Structure formats: structure tokens, C-alpha cells
Amino acid sequence: MDELSRRKMLAAGGTLGALGALGVATPAHAGALWTWSPKGSVAGAGKGADPRGVWDEEADRIVADIIESGHTAAVNRELRKWTKNGQPLSGALPAELRRFMERARRMPSWADEGKLDTATDFNEKRGLYLGVTYGFASGMMSTVIPREARAVYYSKGGADMRDRITKTAKLGYDIGTSNAYRDEGEMIVTCVKTRLAHAGVRHLLPQSPHWSKVADEEIPISQADMMVTWHSLPTTVMQNLKKWKVPIPDDESAAFLHSWQLCAYMLGIKEEYIPNSWAEADSQAAQVLTPILAPTPEGVKLADMLLNLGTIVPGGPLRYVTKPILGALTRYVLGDEIAGWLKIPREPFWDAVFDTAWEPFIAVREGLLSLEDAPGVLQKVYWAFDEILRLGALLVLSGGDLPISIQIPDANNPD
Ligand code: HEM
């Protein structure tokens, strides 16, 4: 279906039905039909509505009004004052937004303090690996999620990747802190502000001629898009840690999932779409994430910026973690096909080194293997692998540097 007839069809037939049809018509872009059962969700039940036709109704309307009435800067000023979960919201926020935020900041009944404490232990023990997987599994994967790559590239943040990386890292930092969801923590603040930022993007991006020309949806960041990105985070991270044979007790693995289920909820994802177990998460990811991965010109450019992370992360530049090493790491983590899409050159030395020495490196760090018994090459590259872990840690820590305030955008990327 060409762009014009699709727009006509959307106008005539109602968004929901048309998006369903779009899924059939352009499976490479829109993904397979949604058949994942809400029985596997944290809600345990639901209407099973296709999340490609569901956004964030109330937040979207309120934020669109703020942008249209020219109050974005004033609202952002008030939002900046809200930094701790338990802190009262500014009385100067528009009343409707404030009422919405009061509801949005409340934790769901299924939040489990005990699991969150275990998640803290896990984050402390595994922080180094989490940094690398957030950066080079999740971050790089986001560049081959076409809708995300286009949205990021053509939104305001696309013009300043360093700022965007730091703001996104804030979420990775906050979720790993010991009081993430408690009154003194900041994760709820970060999620609710991100929810508002996303609502702003939904209003603004459709006005971008650049985005509209290439997008395969009328409004970005549907609930389905949100779940796709969510899977690029915890689901992909856990799959990689398992592949690397990092020993993780079941209760820690379940607790890590729990902290991310709460994140999904606080970002405004409906409970009927949030998987209730890793098995359900894996099955949903296989349906919604894996089949939609594809290259886009925007994603290729974003990936190239990410490969320069060694020079742009605050605390850097890291002398040894060069672009070729990060390219090889990306190829190792995401595979040859995706590396090819991202035009990442082959690095005969480093590609082979990751294949033979990364898993033994983890085993040595875990005390499961002695360095003498590991492949000889590991002794030569141990410093580089260690530096990669440091880069990941710095990336996440950069999100803890104040002041970072996630904002409602007021414009798109002008380029
Ligand atoms: C903004 C996280 C899903 C596109 C943000 C921010 C965070 C974040 C922390 C604030 C950082 C900033 O303002 O730069 C997440 C998480 C998601 C998710 C955890 C899912 C679990 C998505 C999806 C899309 C998307 C599905 C697009 C398809 C954007 C855009 C911005 C943004 C365009 C705004 C950048 C700007 O201000 O210009 N997101 N996001 N996000 N996100 Fe998301």
C-alpha cells in the first residue's frame, strides 16, 4: 500500500482497524499480528486489544495541550523541581497535569518490596555486566528497531546524541539504585517524566516532514512499540548474561524482571501487555522484537555515533576502547547480520578475540576459571575487556550525574 492510500485509509477507516490491516499489508515494517495472550501478563487478563492501536490517551491529550498553548518551557521549569519520588509536585504545574501525575506516580498493587531489595543486590553484583549489555546489546539493538531509530533521529534529541545518551542512561542508573522506587529514589520521577516526553513526541513527530516521509505509522510510540523497546532492554540483557554463562540465582533473575515490569508500568504501558515471567517475555519478544529488526539510514547513523561512545561518555575518553573494538563487540553481541546492516566493518583480530575469549573472560572474573587455563589470547586482551566493562559502567554512571532533567520536547530535530 502506498503512503497516500494508507493515509486515506486511516482517515476513512479509523486508526485501529487500519493499523490491523497495515500489519497484514506490510509485515516487514509493522510486524506480525498481535496474538500474545493477556493471560501471560502481570494483569493475568485483558481485552487482548492489538497494542499497535493503543497509545497513552490521557497523557497524550494533556501534553499536546501544553505544547499547543505554548506552556512547555514553563511546565519543564516546574518539572525540573521534582527530583525525588516522594517529593510533592509543584503547585505551579497545570492542575490537570498535576492530577494526572499524582495518579501516574502511584505504584501498582503487585509491587513487591522484597523483590526490589533482591533486584538491588543483583544490580550491585552485576552492575559491570549490566552497563555493557545496556550499552551494546540494548543501545545498539535500538538502532535496528526501525520505528525507534526514526523517532529518535527526527525528534529533538536526535540533534544532540550526547545529551540523549546521558538522559537515557539516567533510567539505567536510577533503576539500579538501592532506593529506586522508594520515596528517596528517582526512578518514578524518571519514568513519569519519560512518559510525558513520549507524549510530547507523539504530538510533535507527526508534524515533522522528515519523519512523516519515512514513518510507517501515523503516531509514534504505540504500546506495541513500547514493548518492543522494553524487550531490547531487560529481555535482551538477560538473554546475553545467560549466553555468557554469568551465574544468576533464580530469585535474582526474577527480581531483575520485577524491577523492569514496574518500569514498564510507570512508563504507562498497560498491565495486560507486560509479561509476567521470563518465559512469557521471551515468547513475546520472539513475536514482536526479533521479526521487526531491520536497517534504516537513520539507525546506521545512530549506530555510528554510539560506536564513538568511548570518546563521548563523560569520564572518557577511554584510551583503549576504540571504535574497532566496540564494532567487534557489537558484532559479537548482535551477530553478523545486524553488524552488516549497521555497516560495521569486520575486524579480523578483534572479531576472533571476542569469539574465543569473552566467555572465558567472564569465567575468570567469576572465579570459575583461572587465567592460566584460559585461551592464551585472553592474557593479551584482558585489559581491553576490563576497559569495556569500565566504559559500560561509566555510561550508566553518567546517568547519575546531576543535573539531568527529562523534559517535554518543544520541537523536532530541525535537520
Ligand atoms: C525519550 C526511555 C520507548 C522514542 C526517552 C527518555 C527515556 C526513554 C529515558 C528521556 C531521554 C530524553 O529525553 O532524551 C524509553 C524506554 C522505553 C522507551 C525505557 C521502553 C521501555 C520508546 C519508543 C520510542 C521512543 C518505543 C519510539 C518508537 C523516544 C524519543 C524520545 C524518548 C523520540 C525523546 C527524545 C527527545 O526529547 O527529543 N525515552 N523509551 N522511546 N524516547 Fe523513549
From TrEMBL:
<dbReference type="InterPro" id="IPR018713">
    <property type="entry name" value="MPAB/Lcp_cat_dom"/>
</dbReference>
<dbReference type="InterPro" id="IPR006311">
    <property type="entry name" value="TAT_signal"/>
</dbReference>
<feature type="domain" description="ER-bound oxygenase mpaB/mpaB'/Rubber oxygenase catalytic">
    <location>
        <begin position="133"/>
        <end position="354"/>
    </location>
</feature>
<protein>
    <submittedName>
        <fullName>Oxygenase MpaB family protein</fullName>
        <ecNumber>1.-.-.-</ecNumber>
    </submittedName>
</protein>
<dbReference type="InterPro" id="IPR037473">
    <property type="entry name" value="Lcp-like"/>
</dbReference>
<dbReference type="GO" id="GO:0016491">
    <property type="term" value="F:oxidoreductase activity"/>
</dbReference>
<keyword id="KW-0560">Oxidoreductase</keyword>
<dbReference type="Pfam" id="PF09995">
    <property type="entry name" value="MPAB_Lcp_cat"/>
</dbReference>
